[in-house]
Amino acid sequence: MNAVLFPYVNKVGDNSRPNGAALWFGKLLEKLDRSLFEKESVMADWTHNYMCHVFKDNETSLFHEFQKYGYKTLLSEDWAEGTLNWPNCKGFDKPPINHYMRPFQNAMERKNHGVNVTKRHLKGKMCREQHHTLLDYLGQFLDAYPDQKKFSWTWASHLGHNSENGIAHSDNDFYNFMIRHRKQLENSFVFFMGDHGLRFGSVRKTFVGALDVNNPFLSISIPKELRKNTKILDIMRKNAKKLQTHFDTRSTMLDILKFHSASNFADTVPLEIPGEKGYSYLREPSTIRNCKNSPIPIQYCICQFNKTAVSTKNKLALSIGKQISYSVNEELKAGNFTKQCIEMKVDRIVSLLKYTQSMNGSDVYIVVFKMKKPSQANFKANVKILPTGKVKVLGMIERTDSYKNTANCIKSEHHRPYCYCKNQEDS
């Protein structure tokens, strides 16, 4: 299929929801702290309250865009809560597309829904997994509309969410699917991608794992005729050498839908789509791309700089630890969750890396630290030391281990990584 691999895609949010919002709606859900570059910060497009407590039916999603142009549409995820709902969010009130797999997932996961034989069918006892149903559903969709334009979104979370080994064991399933539907896919734009890397576990503690979590996979195959008769493949390969985000992936899809098809894919001049934050991969690159001018929160930036390890036992490390624990607790205080969640205290600085080059006269560090019992939570943060000696946290403090049910006493997704419930029975 002559797919082009994009190795420098940078995530724009911690987990699936903010990255999904960038793809589906073109919205930024996390603040861009630009103080490192002495620039004004950029606020999120939607607040957590709006994102979670207001149905998104009135917002223009990619699904609506393609439906307006006469496409048949499909959305399938491998669990009922899905990208916009977990945890404690409303998502869509009504199906946003023609074919929606959520009723099947509800039957699988909800009590008093579905039948036991279906539930057992996907518990591994019959050599069937969730991604098999996704591929079956997508195959049925492709076969059902042989002569109509189609837009489908298949999101498999279970395969790679909890283990670095999950995706590899499904290679043959995806390969066989593509072989079986080769003729249909050869006349299609196929995006094979992730939204973020593995967020916890032992691999997350390695250099590769720390990079992977912020560097989602993306490869794109274009229709066979366009590979032979246009410059698009060469242009995509140029763009693949630059820093990208899924805002660019979204803009590429909109370019295919609204603009490029009108020129028969001959117009490769850079295009700014009104209201969009990204640039199409199918057009000549227009600007230098870096974390300073792209919609990437600084804590996720995959650009690599020289760093040196410094002592985790000196006064500076102690000052950084105090400021970070203060910042974590201030987040809980701002959310009014101090009654439910314990006060976090730093147990030790695990590592402290100093950027070799100062940034606008300030020393910048990456710090990894562990909180005291009972949470023993692991966090990572970027900080800079101001000329006054004050420690300033840059961007969001990241939770790097799994907190699972220990934060279930609160519902705010933003605050849950910072919370360890005082009453664990509530969790």
TrEMBL record:
Would you name any one GO CC term? extracellular space
Q: Which gene encodes it?
A: Cnig_chr_X.g25623
The UniProt entry, under SUPFAM superfamilies, shows:
Alkaline phosphatase-like
Q: InterPro entries attached here?
A: Alkaline_phosphatase_core_sf, DUF229
Quote the protein name from its UniProt record. Sulfatase N-terminal domain-containing protein
